[in-house]
Design brief:
This protein has one domain. Helix content is about 30%, strand content about 30%. It contains 2 helices and 3 strands; from the N terminus they run αβαββ. It has a 3-stranded antiparallel beta sheet with strand order 1-3-2, covered by helices on one side. GO terms for molecular function: rRNA (uridine-C5-)-methyltransferase activity.
């Protein structure tokens, strides 16, 4: 499970995930833009399975997103 700050994951952390190759990654984020950026970097070895937006802050523009990614077996 990954739940980074608004700025998203740093490059070292992304590379560590790609090296460790967990079977699944659950990525929780309060910033869809950085979550998308990080998901594109992880797409090297992972495919997007599910995206679930969660309105934790009603009547605001803020939304949490929960993304499930699965390792692509070669």
């Amino acid at each position: 499970m990954v739940d980074p700050p608004r700025k998203g994951c740093d490059e070292t952390f992304i590379q560590t995930l790609l090296t460790l190759e967990p079977k699944r990654i659950v990525y929780i984020s309060c910033n869809p833009a950085t979550q998308q950026r990080d998901a594109l970097l992880l797409a090297e070895k992972y495919q997007l399975e599910e995206v679930t937006p969660v309105d934790m802050f009603p009547q605001t523009t803020h939304v949490e997103c929960v993304v499930l990614m699965s390792r692509v077996e070669k």
